[in-house]
# Entry
Amino acid sequence: MNGSWIYEKHTEDYGVSWKINNILHQEKSEYQEITVADSETWGRMLLLDGIVQTTENDEFMYHEMITQVALHSHPGIKNVLVIGGGDGGTLTQIVKHPAVEHIDLVEIDGQVTEICRKYFPGFQPGFSDPRTNIIIQDGIEYVQKTNKKYDLIIVDSSDPTGPAVGLFTSSFYASVFQTLNNDGMMVTQSESPIFYADIFTSIYRNICSAFGSAHIYMSTVPTYISGPWTFTIGSKKHDPRKIISDRPVPEGMKYYSPAVHQAAFVLPQYIKTQLIKAG
Ligand code: AG3
# Structure
């Protein structure tokens, strides 16, 4: 296959086309169709059930932001749990912090991890770090059953269809709350505020009801439906908007900086209105 297009359909009247050079891998796992494509503009791309999950060239805009904000606002992060994130991009950001002692990554689909290890060399540092422990299991079941407690839980899921549906419910956030230490923090990717407006507001409501409050911040990810992307934090104690001063920013950040950290919590008016309407 040479120079063909992948069409990513989002709604009845909106879709995106990606010109790709090559399909490097495609298979149907127990849970989903996994595709690794090679494109001129975005480099290698991972698609699950036809939806772009990450690309070599803009992954930093997502992975730095889903990790570094919490890692720079919680002063005592030693044990981290990542739910989803089987591509290794989130892991690769976390291991940049020497203060982190242990990371459990719970991914439902072992094939995603296998394939990404092979095709995304940029995510190798996360997989090969001795502090990383990969568990192939349903994240919902894991937080219901585990006796372990974490300082930080990151939910790096795909959209709320297929295996990820349960990761957006209030009962899941209640289990996450239970699985955190007394000053623990959680962050989840919370979708496009435009194309997933209902999900985005329901995540906010559900995290508020589990944690008493929730904090939203944003990034822009060109390869996710139209760009604007949200993250939502539930925190038992620490204010995620306050940057701790004694944790150095890892070298080589391409998106995150303390100034970006602060600015990311400033929400556009249309989003504030959405949240007010949602109650
Ligand atoms: N995490 C978020 C993917 C969301 C993509 N959604 C979309 N394009 N409609 C993917 C895993 C990255 N580590």
The longest helix spans residues 197-211.
